[in-house]
Design brief:
With 272 residues, the chain is an alpha+beta fold. The protein is 40% helix and 11% strand.
Length: 272
Amino acid sequence: MPLETLTPIIEAALFAASEPLSLDRLQSLFFDDEKPEKGTLREILAELQQQCEGRGIELVEVASGYRYQVRKKVTQWVSRLWQERATRYSRALLETLVLIAYRQPVTRAEIEDIRGVAVSSHIMKTLQERGWARVIGHRDVPGHPGLYATTREFLDYFNLKSLDDLPALSELKDFDQINAELDLRMPGEEVADEDMASENNGDEDVTGDESDGMVDASKDVAANDTSVEISDSVSPDQQQEHAKPGDSEPVEEGDSTTNDSPLESENGVESS
């Protein structure tokens, strides 16, 4: 099939898709006798990316594949198409996510040691419900605490192809800037307003007063950067699964320990 026929098909598929499309997924659109080679698809995708130069949209590659999205420089106007109030994530939740991303696999207790305060259950639940973090195994110590790692959905959401694309800790922005980017990343997406629930719980984490900011958290991560081991109950294949999209369930195979009690429903988010 000639490129002039393939290109509009690929472009239309990317526009119509509600999620990133991998090369394999794009190939699946065609019958075997017309299926383009991956090299041909990459050539088409590169051309489509070039065509987006100077436009309000861009074609980006993330962990799950390729997708069209609105450029950051125009999101403040485009976001006005939606009536929902922007969701702001608490300082404590963002710090916890940073620690999981840079220290993974990491236990909740290790996160608390670094932050110097307790991590509320609803923060951990929110990260798992959003598909940004999941339990990939258990540390082989008394109590067998869960080991948290980020997911493929986390990479997709933050426009990363792999964990190697994470910025250096010194490059991390302050929480207001991060929240501004998160507010505009997924317009129209429903997220519960948990201000009242957080107040009722008396959760100091949600206020963020106990933290001096992302930079301080980054320094703590660097200062306490020690190696951790996956529990013997987690196989090498399972260790690689921490990038599996949307899967926030603990790994149970071979693990004789019981799960933690059900987490509360509060989600550690703030309304702007």
